[in-house]
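Subject: Arginine decarboxylase

B.,
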Amino acid sequence: EELYGVRRWGAGYFSIGDNGNIQIAPNHRLPEVTIDMQEVVDEIIAEGIQLPAVIRFHDILRSQVEILNETFANTIEDASYGGKYVGVFPIKVNQMREVVEEIIDAGEPYNYGLEAGSKPELMAVLAYNENPNALTILNGYKDEDYLTLALLGRQLRRKMIIVIEKYSELEMLIPLARKLGVEPMIGLRSKMMVRSSGKWAGSSGDRAKFGLSITEILNIIELLKKEDMLHCAKLLHFHIGSQLSDIRKVKEAVSEAARLYAKLVQLDVPLEYLDIGGGLGIDYDGTSSTTDSSRNYSTDEYVADVVYGVKQICDLEKVPHPNLVSESGRAITAHHSCVVTNIVGEIKNTGAKYDTSATNGEHILVSNMRELTTAEELHPQEKYNDAASFKQSAYEAFKLGILSLDEMAKLDTMYWQILAEIHSSIDRDSFVFQELEELEDMLASQYLCNFSIFQSAADTWAIGQVLPIVPISRLNEQPEVRCSIVDITCDSDGKLSKYIEGTEISDNIPMHTLRKGEHYHVGMFLTGAYQDVMGDMHNLFGRLTEVHIYCHDDEPGDFYIEEVVPGTAAEKVLETMQYNTDYMAKTVKKSIDREVRKGHIAPREGVRWTDYYEKCLAGSTYLKV
Ligand code: PLP
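Prediction pasted inline below.
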């Protein structure tokens, strides 16, 4: 098994080189051309950029757009399918302007469009999706402004489809369209009966937040007929949830939706498009299975199931094949970005040492623990039980004022020494030790990592999503330490410890021992979907500096930094919380001046303190190491 399962989750983009560094093959058409991740990080540091940083590989983004579009086009051709594929990228998955621009540019040959789910997203797609042959799909709940902006898009001759989520939206749209004299393109979002599985199962079924029941769809059709607007109904939409892990749910949803599409067409609803929403999953944990962080199918299989599934039902029902739309977001963006940072320290229970030699009159609990350190004849299980019991008694005695601080420090040092010895003496294959897992957890180090989970990996905290976290070099050395990765927020939840070994999930991540004076860089991968944009400023840690990497077309394997987007400075983060940083700087200066006047601080020193405070306000929110 390859270390960290890199190839399993790497989707052809990530692997380990002979030199032990992560290698990236960003262009799917040139899989043999790789760039060395450590070289990328070295260049970033040489440019004076402080870690942590988000690295975006724009060529990966382009590759994913091409793969999805070409897979659909090829399957459609192989299947002699009658419609076309006209996909859209849902910008909520990553609204960064540079990401959206790259996707639009890479998708132009395929007329790949955009999807918006809110008013501000609609404003962005109006400005960025100018291709009149590409679709703009408008989801989410809508007010009059939302609908008016959508009609503006129609005036600009864009294929803007307003997807109706609720009957009342149509009641609002009809008079508005009449008043403005604009003919809308209308989509109907169906509330699906199929129950999907995984973290987003709530997106389908009777209690789903979005979509129209069959009854509501029929009522809408009646209303459209009455208003002489049935010809505006162009698209049938569904979305049964993100990160669909089981292909059987995709197949089920496709048959349900294709049947509904066919029945509606038979009722003379002139639908031209079937929109299958998002859901195409990512193999975050590399298990290719139905865990919440994986998927049991490939993109080829997903696309084939959609194309052939729709075709079969339409042929049976004798209706034309619709054009196919998908709204894959995660699958387009997840691979292209990662967070690179450094380990800044180690928190270890066995780390602190104290002189444990015997002293006259020491408490019996201390002597007992000392005897245990040399009790070689004792069974490890018994030794473990005794040590735990002495430690508990010592704690009780300390609370009653019986044990001194010196005695507690001795006891503690010996306790951890005993646990470490027990652990190293256990032969896992021949010996059953009931608390082995507990012991390993207690002894595991915590690597302190210069980032905030709440800013950079929100889903790991919020919904237990697994993201690969891997050192970017030394991968030709076996990692010796098992640890959890803790972030620099003041929150015990700021922790990553899930690791997938083959198909097993373990509670500690293997890492290498840290070497003095040497940086240990780790990468958190597959963060390009949702993580990039959903993070918050817990503890006032701001957005990370971003580095955009492109490959040289004419020099295979070479890369360049195309753009650096600075991270949020401390003053900007403070300002979003309503602080006036000019006022803060003035107040601190006033306090310093007061101490200067009193003679507590020398005038020259006072100036230095003032400058220093201002420099920190303009600086990064993360640790400078
Ligand atoms: N379309 C709609 C309506 C969604 O709600 C979502 C996300 O849940 C998506 C598309 C994107 O889904 P995914 O990122 O799984 O492709």
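The domain at 35-50+329-567 is CATH 2.40.37.10 (Lyase, Ornithine Decarboxylase; Chain A, domain 1).

T.
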